[in-house]
């Protein structure tokens, strides 16, 4: 990001009275718990929309977990 872009974003945040904050860390054990929860919810979901949303979230979490595992292996 260029300095001019950073100044624009900072000014916009100041005008909106928004303070930037750091992302909350996401741990592997919580990722596993969430994955199990979604699996249970998918088994008991009734409507097609519920199944679609849960399956979409599962796919995202599987992709996220593979990235996290790759980063952990790379860091070793």
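^ structure tokens above, recovered residues below v
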């Amino acid at each position: 990001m260029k300095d001019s872009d950073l100044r624009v974003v900072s000014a916009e945040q100041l005008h909106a009275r928004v303070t930037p904050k750091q992302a909350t860390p996401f741990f592997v054990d919580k990722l596993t718990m969430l994955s199990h929860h979604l699996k249970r919810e998918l088994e008991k979901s009734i409507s097609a929309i519920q199944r679609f949303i849960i399956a979409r979230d599962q796919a995202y979490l599987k992709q996220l977990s593979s990235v996290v595992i790759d980063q952990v292996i790379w860091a070793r």
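The mean pLDDT is 79.
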